[in-house]
Amino acid sequence: MTRVPRRRAAQGRRPLVLVLPALCALAFLLVPLIGLLWRAPWRGLPDRLLNAEVGQALRLSLECASLATVLCLIFGVPLAWLLARGDVPGRGVLRALVTVPLVLPPVVGGVALLLVLGRRGLFGRYLYEWFGVSLPFTTAGVVVAEAFVAMPFLVISVEGALRAADPRFEEAAATLGASRWLTFRRVTLPSVLPGVVAGGVLCWARALGEFGATITFAGNFPGKTTTMPLAVYLALEADPEDAIVLSLVLLTVSVAVLVALRERWIRGAV
């Protein structure tokens, strides 16, 4: 009977040596965002959002991020299944390689894409010679760059959901004569759908905010490859208020992603 009050008392103690650094860290993370909101041109915000350049960058960003997410879903979900359920040698090494774009500087990723998919790249030369397709410095190049940096977010989320799913349902489907493809479509995929949705949202948000790989591999051509992060970078020199407006849009998307995934993260933490 005395353990619960003691435990609550122990949890209620807040040593000053921990509280002060915690408050400093909180201020360090929140004050820049508050400053962004404080300096925002709220009165002229609708007009600036309807500005041709801002609207163009916003439209291009949304389209490219959505296409990149579709690519990640098409290729990333099977990859996550292979890592979670596939009996392949060196699976741990494969998993480590998949997560490399998470820690790789995006600019380095853009350089790597140029060396592989450029007109003189390892595979890009054949794409150009055989099919006349050149990805660098095109809108398609933006999609490829965003998919490269965003796919690990989807793969990790879906793989985690697959590992947490109960395999007995798949085994039951197999005993009833269902093929592996039918079992995946009708049993496995519905059971991990929340993980796929969460990974897709994270993937889309990461693609929307990509800068380094995009500017390195796709360049910065207004109306063609200038996405919102690139437009923010350019607007800082020409019109800082436009940069603030675009930053607010990206901040709104980030907050929306956090709100959309809040329940999933809370359930995972409990």
UniProtKB/TrEMBL annotation:
Its main location: membrane. SUPFAM superfamilies: MetI-like (SSF161098). It is a multi-pass membrane protein. GO terms for cellular component: plasma membrane. InterPro entries: MetI-like, MetI-like_sf, ModB_ABC, NifC_ABC_porter. It is found in: Cell membrane. It comes from the Bacteria. Residues 58-261 form the ABC transmembrane type-1 domain. The chain crosses the membrane at residues 16-40, 60-84, 96-117, 137-158, 187-207, 243-261. Keywords: Cell membrane, Membrane, Molybdenum, Transmembrane, Transmembrane helix, Transport. GO terms for molecular function: molybdate ion transmembrane transporter activity. The keyword Membrane applies. It holds the Pfam family BPD_transp_1. The keyword Zinc does not apply. Part of the binding-protein-dependent transport system for molybdenum; probably responsible for the translocation of the substrate across the membrane. PANTHER family: MOLYBDENUM TRANSPORT SYSTEM PERMEASE PROTEIN MODB (PTHR30183:SF3). Belongs to the binding-protein-dependent transport system permease family. CysTW subfamily. This is Molybdenum transport system permease. It comes from Nocardia colli.
